[in-house]
Amino acid sequence: MEFKRKNLGLYLGCFTGVAVLLIILFNILGLAPFGGSTLASADAYYQYMDFYAWFHDVLHGSNNIGYTFGKTLGGTNIAVFSYYLASPLNLLVYFFDKTQLHTFFDLMILIKLALASMTCGIWLNRRFENQLGRVWIWFLSMGYGLCQYGLAQSSNVMWLDGVILLPLILLGIYRLIWKKNLWHLSLCVGISISLNWYTGGINCIFTGIWVFLEMFLFVEAQKQQGIRCGIKTWIKRAVAYILSMLVGVLLSACLFLPTVMALRGGRATMNKELFYNQLIANPASFLPGFSIGAINSWGNLSLFCGSLTVIGCIGLFFSKVIRKWQKVILGVFLAICLLIFYWQPAIWLFSMFKDVGSYWYRYSYVGIIGMIFCAAFYFSNKKKEEAVNWWIIIGTVLFAGLMLVVNHFKPIQENTYLIVTIVILLVMAFFISGINGKGKKAGKQVLCIMLGVAVIGELVADNTILLKQYKLDNVEEFKAYEKNQQAQIDEILTADNSYYRMTQLRNRLFTSDGLSCTYNEALAFGYWSIAGYTSDPDDDQREMLERFGYRMNGENYNIVTTSVLTADSLLGVKYVLSDRAIKGLKEQKQFSVLNEKSVYLNPYCLPMAFRYEQSTDDIKYNGNPFEYQNELYSALLGRNVKLYTSVDYQKNEEGDAILYQLDVPQGNVLLYGNLPWNRDYVGMLNVNNVYPLGYAKWGSPSVFDIPIDEEAHTAEVVQTGEYGVDVSEVQFYALNLDLFKEVTEELSAKAAKINEMKNGYVSIQTDAKQGEKLFLSIPTNDGWKITLNGKEVIPELISDCLMSISLKNGDNSIELTYRVPGLRTGAIVSLAGVLLLLVCICGTRKRQRK
Fold it and tell me: Cα–Cα 20 to 30 A to 522, which of 2, 494, 723, 822?
């Protein structure tokens, strides 16, 4: 019991050490809750804050994981939950107000990094069978919890769950190889995949390397005891490993299987073009990456987790007590750990078969833990050495020299940080050597204290640099925006409880050139929209929105910075929140103007369910969203209609700029432009001297509205580009608002009665004539079960996305019920995994009793 209490104290010490240091640094640097800064930057600011706000509503019963209309046009959010929110720690968001999400986010980072340190301590203590000194465990675990990866990837806080679980997974492999214990690995793998399938997959791939390391070390240890391990031993351990990993995957199926089913409609395919045999850079460039303040970039690796780990790895090869074959095994392992960051097939594999495009080396924590293991292997044998090993000091000096040389010829890190790191590295090497030298015990204790000061000081210095680099000073601005936006949305929802969508043309992030990418506010504030930004988008929805004029941006979302009135009306967008007036929309003065946005009513908004007759199957998209919508509305009406007509223009080049002079048609019209580009040229549009708009760049739209005065006969668009201008086709069109009003009134006259429409359930009643169909502005999904008068039916598709249901003559009762695809099957598979896990546990205990 005393021994267990000491171990518990060690593990709590690992947790507390990291937590206390981060609390002090958060306080000094003014991070929430102590000040106006936060680590919720980059994608955390663009996406995750809204996800946490949505999950807050889910926990309070006002939103749904299975299906939500707040995700773009509507869909299951199971993949968003399993990727971003499945960690049990996220349940704490229940106790935070939406204006306090920065505090919640920073708290999550602190807790997760402290937990990573603790699980590392558990792994080191159990892996080395209490042969590794507690001081070394604490130092190395602190290095793991405060490593470069933790704060550099802190904006992707969900990846830290993989960092927490990896030490326990590696402990499971040790127990499987050395103790014939299968269940520990299975349980940890299942938990890792369930908490975040992305880092869970990385961890599973890394086990394929680690199992060979442990097996070679096991065979070498058996050999020293005179026990020969033949091919039979290898086969048995291989079968046990495969079985254990399989059980772990089965355990996660209740969440992982429906996630895979959800991802099939978007980004589930692998990019095979990235699998080619090539080194992407000189592997020697990893040396400066051991400097404080180092970060990862393409071809430049940083595995910083403290100089103590570097000295331990150097000492491994100069130690007089570690056997030659152990050095060979660990040396090969370290070489492989380095290779996976520079050899393209390995990068492709650990990047989960995709081109990541940002946040380089998302798996660098596996290299860090590999180094920590090698250092721990040296320190676990260090007490057997009775004198100073000067070769370790010489090796450290050579390593420091190589860091300087490589950084001189290829500057990667700041020289100041590099020199400070080298000084600390050399000082630590002398301290460690002195601990083994001849001298009094009191002197060695002083050296240990000085070593501890150096270890903590270096980690604090590195984390201070990283915190200053990654923190964002916008907490008060965020609080004010959240409070105001929720108030404005609630005003609208309270005043109008019918079924409709809203769009915002100015979001939380809004740049000077009119661009944004914070498109998840519908999830955050509880309304229905047409915009969304997740890593699991529905391609059918994105492609349809592109055909409607809302350009796809890469693989994740569509750009919504204007109101394409015909598209919005068809999709049921009734209100538009905008900081500028758009012709055709009517400002609603009864609502508050908040966050510089007024509320505008779309008087042409169509009901979300109405009858029509003509088929839309023959409509093809040729790159012109205006002509496409002409054809679509013609099909819905059953006659040819030209809502959009092309506008005459004159094109003039003035220096580096292109000026388009438009002839405004007579009548009540709304002008739009679209200048499809052949390549990104980082452009800018001046739209009739009313507003600027970034163009042909990341996050920029394609279609834009052109404000005009009532009596104007001309309008002007000026186009410039940082790299010239490269446009394939110029499209300027005028929307006839009077004709559009007639069209929408005619279609609205055939509205169906919506009895109920909520997340995951729709009930509609309508009378119909033979041959009529029901248009639904609800996207198709495999999870919908649709019944017509009690009989299940399969819907047709409009624009390959929205649902159309053939109606019967007379009364028609339609019900749509959503069930998450794969959820039930996944639960059954997980139950099978639990049963197999119990069998493994019983088998292990039976062997232990024997």
Answer: 822
